[in-house]
Amino acid sequence: MNDINTRKTGVLLVNLGTPDTPETGDVRKYLREFLMDKRVIDIPAPQRFVLINGIIAPFRAPKSAKIYKELWEERGSPLLYHSVDLKNSLQEQLGAKYHVALGMRYQSPSIQSALEELRSKFVDRIIVLPLFPQYASASTGSVQDKVMEIVKEWWIVPDITFISSFCDDPLFIQAFAALGRKYLEKEPYDHIVFSYHGIPERHILKGSVNNYCKLGSCCDTYHKMNRYCYRAQCFLTSRLLAKELNLTEGQYSVTFQSRLGKDPWLKPYTDVLLQDLPAQGKKRVLAFSPAFVADCLETTIEVGSEFKELFEKAGGEHWQLVESLNSSPLWVEAVKQMILRN
Ligand SMILES: C=CC1=C(C)c2cc3[nH]c(cc4nc(cc5[nH]c(cc1n2)c(C)c5CCC(=O)O)C(CCC(=O)O)=C4C)c(C)c3C=C
Ligand SMILES: [Fe+2]
Ligand SMILES: [Fe+2]
Q1: Same domain assignment for residues 193 and 275
Q2: For residue range 189-202, what is the model confidence (pLDDT) as tens digits?
Q3: Which end of the chain is more exposed for a tag (fewer CB within 10 A), N or C?
Q4: Using a 6 Å cutoff on CB, does residue 294 contact ligand 1?
């Protein structure tokens, strides 16, 4: 029974978003919304408009649609259905004092509809968890921006807490390590690759407070001066995963994937580094994608099949992707504890 005096906390889970269908028209609509975001393509609006309407919409959308068709399953886009499963499991675990809603930064279900759902449940406060372990302005920052844009229009602005990163959350690390351990215990691997979604190098420099981060060894340790540096957070996640898996420094590499355009992105690039591994005797490789908590185009297709093909062409024998956290019980527990702590 709904007690009128029971206080309720709203939880808003937000992932990146995905096209409604893998058809070119829907992929184009998705890419337009995604890439018109000034935190993603950070060039002046008129240039962004020309880039998107002159190149992305006519040329990239049909190419991406082909890949989305490979990714699509009976339940649709994995990014969306895994996020729905996570939301449902989390609601079950948190019980009636919480109401959990799911929004996507781009396309559907929208952040607006998820926030309206929470408002209609009379929640006292809202905890927003962008489902990106490492903070980047293009992902987490954009979610924060959108949430604030919406609630600033409400007559009553709710109490909001943002969980802006969980790159070093012990349960997140344990949950990811457990997925990889399954493979490591079954057969031998010569090397581990932690491949993160890349961002343009200038995004790191723009976020660098007092010019601390310069894309060098500045990110090798994590402290208050690089607290929001995506690169430093990726390195930290990797060190913690390596520790949890008992890996020594030479046994793993940290790399960046999915670059777009000609500007320099974070290096080393995964597709370049993996082609050098076989010549170094590293012919059996286990690849983690710890920037994603749900399987998506960038894990299943890019890491799981495109990189595998490149690796085998370069003389590699076995390339294995570690699936993402999706709605695995350890991950649901990790999210539950993040919410309870806040
Ligand atoms: C880890 C979080 C992400 C960051 C940071 C990020 C930055 C970023 N991405 C692009 C361009 C594209 N990304 C695409 C797909 C995609 N990106 C993320 C996450 C982050 N992106 C996810 C989870 C996905 C997969 C979505 C799915 O439906 O499965 C795409 C679309 C696919 C394609 O056409 O290749 C583009 C384009 C930029 C430019 C950027 C930072 C500046
Ligand atoms: Fe992306
Ligand atoms: Fe840094």
Answers
A1: yes
A2: 999 999 999 999 99
A3: N
A4: no
Count of all residues that appear for the chain in the document: 342
Complete DSSP assignment for 44-101: -HHHHHHHIIIIIIIIIHHHHHHHHHHH-BTTB-HHHHHHHHHHHHHHHHH-TTEEEE
**Structural domain total, the chain:** 2
* The residue to which tokens 């229009």 are assigned: 153
Q: Is the pTM of this model over 0.95?
A: yes
Q: What is the 230 CA–ligand 3 centroid distance (Å)? A: 7
DSSP 189: -
Distance 270 CA to ligand 3 centre (A): 19
Q: Ligand nearest 259 Cα, by number?
A: 1
Q: List the residue whose alpha carbon is closest to atom 37 of ligand 1.
A: 31
pLDDT digits (tens, 9 = 90+) for 45-89: 999 999 999 989 899 999 999 999 999 999 999 999 999 999 999
Pocket test for ligand 1, best of 43, 69, 260 (most atoms within 8 A of CB): 260
* Residue 287 identity (one-letter amino acid): A
Distance (angstroms) between ligand 1 centre and the Cα of 291 equals 11
Give nearest CA residue, ligand 1 atom 34: 64
Task: Give yes or no: residues 314 and 180 share one domain.
Answer: yes
Identify the CATH number of the domain in which residue 209 sits: 3.40.50.1400
Residue 4 lies in a domain: no
Q: Could you list the residue range(s) of the whole structural domain that residue 189 is in?
A: 170-321
ipTM for the predicted complex: 0.97
Q: Which residues pair with 110 in a beta bridge?
A: 104
The verdict on 44 and 83 lying in the same domain is yes
Instruction: Assign 2 a pLDDT band (cuts: 50, 70, 90).
Output: low
Find the ligand nearest to 213 CA: 3
Check whether residue 90 and residue 154 sit in a common domain: yes
Please enumerate in sequence order all residues whose Cβ is within 8 A of that of 44, keeping only pairs 6 or more positions apart, or say none.
none
